[in-house]
Amino acid sequence: MSSETTILVALLLPVLAAVSCLLLGGGLGRPNLRDIATPLIGACTFAAVWRLARDVLAGGRPELVLFEVLPGVELAFQVEPLGLLYGLVASGLWIVTSIYAVGYMRGHHEHNQTRFFTFFALSIFAALGIAFASNLFTLFLFYEALTLLTFPLVTHHGTDEARRAGRIYLGILLFTSISFLLFAILFTWRLTGTIEFTPGGILGAETSSGMVTVLLLLYAFGAGKAALMPFHRWLPNAMVAPTPVSALLHAVAVVKAGVFAILKIVVYVFGLDLLRGSDASLSLMTIASFTMLMAAVIAIRQDNLKARLAYSTISQLAYIVLGAAMATATGILAGGMQIAMHAAGKITLFFCAGAILVATHKKKVSELDGLGRTMPWTFAAFFLASLSIIGIPPLGGSWAKWYLMVGALETGFAWQAAFLGVLMLSSLLAVFYLMPVVVRGFFAASPSAGPSGSAGGDRKPIAEAPFLCVAPLVLTALLSLALFFVAGDLASLLHF
Amino acid sequence: MIEKILVLEVVLPLLAAPVCVLVRHPRFCRLFSLGVVAACFAIAVALLVEVRGGGVISYQLGGWPPPLGIEYRVSTINAYLLALVTAMALVVFSFDSRGGPPRVPEQRRHLYYAVFLLCISGLLGIAITGDAFNIFVFLEISSLSSYILVSLGGHRRAVMSAFYYLVMGTIGGVFFMLGVGLLYQATGTLNLRDIAARLEPSLDDRGTVLALALLVVGISIKLAVFPLHHWLPNAYSFAPPKVSAFLAATATKVSFYLLAMVLFTIFGAPFVFEELRLQAVLLPLSILAMFLASGAAIFQTDLRRLLAYSSVAQIGYMTLGLSTANATGLAGGLVHLFNHAVMKGGLFLVVACLLYRVGSVHIDALAGIGRRMPLTSAALVIGGLSLIGVPGTVGFVSKWYLVSGVLERGWTAAAVLILLSSLLALVYVGKVVEVVYFRKPAETQPIDHVREAPLGMLAPAWVLAAAAVFFGLTTDWTYGVAREAAELLLAGGI
C-alpha cells in the first residue's frame, strides 16, 4: 500500500465505522455486532496511522492531494511529525474509548446508542482530517466539521441543560473560528498569497511586528477549541455529554485539535524564527500563563468531578499553548509531548469519573469518601494519572513539564524566570485539585460507616464498574506510565 | 449552429405558455413545461460551454444588424445567468407538489404553468438581450407574471402581498424606463454596447447622472436592496412554496446582473466608482442589510419569513461584492448569485416539503419534526450550514472571495463585519435546527401522523442540498465562470 492510499484509508476507516454503526445498529438491529465493529475498525485505523509513522520517522512526508477547491486552494493532506503524533493519539485512544463506551453506555442504559456511536466515529474522521491537513483551508474545513459533528454528542441527553450547553458550545466555537480564525486565514492569504503549511513558515520577515502579534492572537483565540481564557466556557459546559465523549473528545480529540492547530500554525505559518523573542510570543505566553493559573484555581473550587477535570484540562492545554508561544525547538517539543502525555492522563481521569458514575451514580468530589476501598482499580488508576498530570516522575507527564521549564529559560525574555515560577505554581495547584479525590477515596471514612470508623468489621466488598469500563482505564493508566520510558522516541520524532 | 438555437432560449418558453393555455390538460401542461425547461437548460449549458474562456455569440433578430435591430448577445456572464435560471427552473419544475397547499384549482392549473413559463422567458430575456428597451419589455413580462404567481398563494394575504409587490415593482419599472429614456436622449441608441460606446459620462452632465440614479434605484427595488426590500418578505412568505423557491433563486439574481451591467458596462467602473463614488452609498447599505435583515430574521416565527429576511441579508452580500469594484470581490458577488440560489432554492423546497406534511411552517409547528422527517430535516440543516458559510458548502466559497475582495480594497473593518454578520445567520439557523431536533412537539399539535415527504418532493430538495456541498468543494464551474464574468464586466464588456 502506497503512503497516499494509507492516508486515504486512515481517513476513510472512521467513516466506514460510522456507516457500519448505522447499518448494524440502525438498519439491521444488531447492536452487539455494532459494538464489536467499532473497536475493530478503530484498531485498523490506528494500524494505518502507525504505518504512516514509519515513513515519517524515516524522514518522509507522505502526501495526498485530493482536488483543487478554489484556485490555489487544495483539499490536501500531508503527514508531518506533529500531525502524526496527534493522529496517533486520537486514533489510538479511540480504540480504548470505543470499548469503554460500550461498557458505559450499556451500564448507564443510555438511549440512542447508534446515533451516539455514529457521530463518535465521524468525529474521529474530522480529527484525523485536522491532523493530516496540509494547508489552512483543509485544517479549517475539518476543524468546523469537528465542531458540528460533536454537537449531537454534547446534546445527547436532549435535556434543557444539554441544549443550553450545546448552544454555548456551538456559539463560542463557531464565533471564535469564524470571526478570528477564518479572518486570520484570509488575512494570511491576502498577505502571502498562499495558505500552504511550509517548513519555516510562510509569513516573511517583512511582516511588521504589530501585524504578527495581531495575527498570532487571532489564530490563538480563533482556535477556540484550545479553550484559552476568556473563550473557555464551552468546555465545562460540554461536560453534560456522556462521559466517553468527555473523555475522548473533550480531553483528547477536540481540545487537542485546538492546541494542535496553534502548534502547527506557529511552526508552519509563522515559522519559529519569526516569532522567537518577539512581542507576539511574549503576549501569547502571558495569556497562556494567565489561563493556566486561573483555570487551576477555579478547578480547586469545583465539587463536580467532571467540571473539576474540565478546568484542569483548560489549565493543562495552556501548557501546550505556552510551549507553542515560546517558539523555540524545546517549546514545540514540550507542546507536542504534552499533547500525548496529557491525553493519556486525562482520558484515564475521565474514564474513572465515568466508572464511578456508572457504579455508584455519584458525580461530586465530596461524595467520594471511602469509595477507593470498593473501587480499588479505578482509584489506583486515578492516582497514577493524577501523578502524570501533576508531572511527577516516573509518569509521562513529567517530561512535558521538564521540557517546558527548560524551554521557558531559553526564550531570552527579561522575565523568563517568571514563567518558570508559573509552571511550578501550576503543578502545585494541580496537586490541590487532583489529590483530594484520591485522598478522600482511600483514606476518608465512607459515610455509611459509623462515626467510630472501626476498622476491619465493615470492610465492603469490591464493587467496580463493569469490566468493559475498568479494563480501558487501567490500560490508559499504564500507558501514562509507559510513556515515561518512550519519551526519547517522541523527542526524536518532534525534532524541529 | 449555436447562434441559431440561441434565440430558442427565450422563444421556447414564450411559445410554450400559450400552448399550455390552449391544451388545458393539467398533467400535460406539467410534463410539457418540464420538457421545455429541460430544453432551455440544455441550451444554456451548451452556450456556457461555448463561450467559456472569452467567446461571444451574437444573434440578430430578423437579420437586422445592430444598432438598428435587436441583438441577442451571449458572453460568459449572460450564459452564467441563463444556466442559473434554467437550472433552478428545472429543479423547481421537477418538484412534484402533488397539488399540495396551496391548491391551485385543477381547472386553472394550466394557467399557472403558462404564467410560470412566461416568467421564465422574461428572466431569460433580460439576461440574453443586448437592447435596453428589450430589457424593459422582458422585465415587465417577468414582473407581471411573478405578481400573478405570488397571488396564487392561497392565503388572503397572498393577494395583498402580490398587490404591494406590483406597486413597488411598477415603480421600479417606471424608474428603469425613465432611465433608459434619458440614455436614449443622450446617445440616440438603445443597443447596450452602442450606448456604452457613445456615452461619455461626467459629473457635470446632469442628464447622465440622473439616468444612472433612476436606473440604480429602479433596479434596486426589483433587487430588494435594503431599504427598498419591503415587498420581498411578504411576497416570499405568501407565494406558493414552489414559486418562492423559484423567485428567491432567480428573480433577484437577474436584477443583480442588470445592476452590474448598468454600472460596469454602460457607465463604466471608473465613472461610477472613482468619480461618483457609488460605493459610499452601496457599501453602508449592504452592511446594514447584512445586519438588520439578519437581525430581523432571528425574530421571525414563520420559517418562510425567516428565509425571506435572510434573502435580503444575502442580497447585501452580493451588493457588497459589487461595491468593491475589483475582480475578486465582484466575482465573489457573482458567484454568490449561484450559491445563494442553490441554498435558498433548496431551503424553500424544504419548506414546501414541510408545508405538505405538517401543514404549517410556523416555528412551533416544527417542534420535533427532525425525528418524523429525518431526510427533509437533514436537507434543512445542510442549507442552513451553507447560509452560515461553513467550509465545505457553497456559502463558504462566496464568503471567502467577498472577504478577500474587501481586504484587497483595504476595507478591513468591512471584512470583520462580513464575518460577524454570518454569526447572525448562525443564530437564526441554530434556532430552527434546535426546534426541529430538540423541542418536544406541543400536545395540541401532535405530529404522530407526520411522515417523510414523498420522493417527488424530497429528490429535488436534495439535489440542491447536494449541490450546496458539491459546489462548495469544486468551484471551477461556479467561481471560475464568475471570475471570468467579473473580469469581463470590469473591462466594460458584456
Main attributes?
heterodimer, A: 496 residues, mainly alpha, 19 helices, 2 strands, 3% strand, B: 494 residues, two-stranded antiparallel ribbon, 75% helix, 2% strand
Summarize the entry for a quick read.
The complex is a heterodimer of chains A (496) and B (494). With 496 residues, chain A is mainly α.
What is the fold's blueprint, element by element?
The complex is a heterodimer of chains A (496) and B (494).
Chain A: H1 3-27, H2 31-57, E1 63-70, E2 73-78, H3 81-107, H4 113-132, H5 136-154, H6 160-192, H7 209-222, H8 234-237, H9 243-270, H10 272-275, H11 279-300, H12 305-326, H13 329-360, H14 371-374, H15 376-390, H16 397-408, H17 416-443, H18 467-485, H19 487-493
Antiparallel strand pairs in A: 1-2
Helix pairs in contact in A: 1-2, 1-4, 2-3, 3-4, 3-9, 3-13, 3-18, 4-5, 4-9, 5-6, 5-9, 6-7, 7-9, 7-11, 9-12, 9-13, 11-12, 11-17, 12-13, 12-16, 12-17, 13-15, 13-16, 13-18, 15-17, 15-18, 16-17
Chain B: H1 2-6, H2 8-23, H3 26-51, E1 57-60, E2 71-74, H4 76-94, H5 109-128, H6 132-151, H7 156-187, H8 192-198, H9 206-223, H10 231-238, H11 241-267, H12 269-275, H13 279-298, H14 303-324, H15 327-358, H16 369-372, H17 374-388, H18 394-408, H19 412-438, H20 455-473, H21 479-490
Antiparallel strand pairs in B: 1-2
Helix pairs in contact in B: 2-3, 2-5, 3-4, 3-5, 4-5, 4-11, 4-15, 5-6, 5-11, 6-7, 6-11, 7-9, 7-10, 9-11, 10-11, 10-14, 11-12, 11-14, 11-15, 13-14, 13-19, 14-15, 14-18, 14-19, 15-17, 15-18, 15-20, 15-21, 17-19, 17-20, 18-19, 18-20
Overview of the molecule:
The complex is a heterodimer of chains A (496) and B (494). Chain A is mainly alpha-helical and 496 residues long. Chain A folds into two domains: 1-246, no CATH class; 276-450 and 459-496, no CATH class. Chain A has helices at residues 3-27, 31-57, 81-107, 113-132, 136-154, 160-192, 209-222, 234-237, 243-270, 272-275, 279-300, 305-326, 329-360, 371-374, 376-390, 397-408, 416-443, 467-485, 487-493, and strands spanning 63-70, 73-78. The two termini of chain A are 28 Å apart. Mean pLDDT of chain A is 87; it is low at 450-457. Chain B is mainly alpha-helical. Chain B has one domain (2-490). Chain B has helices at residues 2-6, 8-23, 26-51, 76-94, 109-128, 132-151, 156-187, 192-198, 206-223, 231-238, 241-267, 269-275, 279-298, 303-324, 327-358, 369-372, 374-388, 394-408, 412-438, 455-473, 479-490; strands spanning 57-60, 71-74. In chain B, helix 10 packs antiparallel against helix 11. Chain B starts with a helix and ends with a helix. Chain A binds chain B through residues 67-71, 75, 137, 140-141, 144-145, 148, 155, 158, 163, 166-167, 170-171, 174-175, 178-179, 182-183, 186-187, 189-190, and chain B through 385, 388-392, 397, 399-401, 403-404, 407-408, 415-416, 419-420, 422-423, 426, 430, 434, 438, 473-476, 479-480, 483.
